Amino acid sequence: MKKITACTLFFTAFSVCAGKHYNLVSPDGRLMTDISVGKELTYSVSLDGKTVIADSPLSMTLGDGTTWGDNGKVTSFSRKSVDTVIDSPFYRAEKMQDKYNAASIDFKGGWGIEFRLYNDGIAYRFTSSRKEPVIIADENVTYNFLNDATAYAGYTISRSSDPCFTSFENEYAKVKLSETNPDKLIFLPMTVDLGNNLKVTITESDLEQFPGLYMAAGGGTSLKGTHAGYPKKSVQGGHNNLQMIVTEREDYIAKSAGSRTYPWRIAIITDNDRDLAASNLSYLLASPSRIADTSWIKPGKVAWEWWNDWNITGVDFEAGVNNETYKKYHWRLLKSVNAKLLNSVFMLVTRFSGLQTLSHFSNDYIGVGDLKLGSPIFHECRTIHF
Question: Residue 7: in which H helix or E strand, if any?
Answer without folding.
Answer: helix 2-17
